[in-house]
Amino acid sequence: MSEDSAMIRIAVTLEHASLPEVASLLEQSDAVAARLYPGEIRRRITPQSLAKPGVHVVMARHAGKAVALCVLFDRGDGAMELKRMIVDEQVQGKGVGMALLRGAEGEALRLGAHTILLEVGIRNTGGQALYRRAGYQLSTAFPPYEASPLSLFMRRSL
Predict the structure, then answer these.
(1) Predicted structure pTM score
(2) pLDDT per residue over 24-52, tens digit each?
(3) 3-113 adopts what CATH topology?
(4) Best label site of 30, 35, 122, 130, fewest CB within 10 Å?
(5) Domain ranges of the chain
């Protein structure tokens, strides 16, 4: 394994939505979505929209630097929705995505969830592959979503 592709040490924690790193990683997420789905309607998420009860920002850090994030939305029914998972391009392929996903699942369990639900775009093949490796299965759309030719829906019991 080359040094560039070696796994790196990651710390995964819940963090406050107002941190500047949250805004920066959300901007990266929006840019990726715009590349994958130009001209399509995308749901924008801002740090301000995340600063409310039942919303949990999960951050991955390497050597103190924020390198990835995702957001857990408590659905109030024992399930959490995972949204906006983004890994900084500089650390992709080094195990950060899986570390973040497993950390988010641990936080969801700690917060009382028994299931993770997610929507992933059909052109986001990297995300789909990660979720499948992590044991997520295809499922039907869940509220408030409807089936879409641009989306796949997945779930995993914790």
Answers:
(1) 0.91
(2) 999 999 888 888 887 767 677 889 999 99
(3) Aminopeptidase (3.40.630)
(4) 35
(5) 3-113
Q: Kind and range of the H or E element at 11?
A: strand 11-15
The predicted-structure confidence for 100-147, as pLDDT tens digits, reads as follows 999 999 999 999 999 999 999 999 999 999 999 999 999 999 999 999
DSSP of 90-153, one letter per residue? GGTTTTHHHHHHHHHHHHHHHTT-SEEEEEEETT-HHHHHHHHHTT-EEE---TT----TTEEE
- 79-87/115-121 β-pairing: parallel
Question: Phi first, then psi: what are they for 6, rounded to 5°?
Answer: -65, 145
Both structure tokens of 79: 């399930």
Residue with tokens 């295809």: 138
119 pairs with which residues across the strands? 153
Q: With 50 as the cut, is the pLDDT of residue 4 above it?
A: no
What's the pLDDT score for residue 143?
93
Q: CA-CA distance, 9 to 153, in Å (whole number)?
A: 30
What b/e string do you get for 108-129 counting C-beta neighbours within 10 Å, with b at 16 or more? Answer: beeeebebbbbbbbeebeebbe
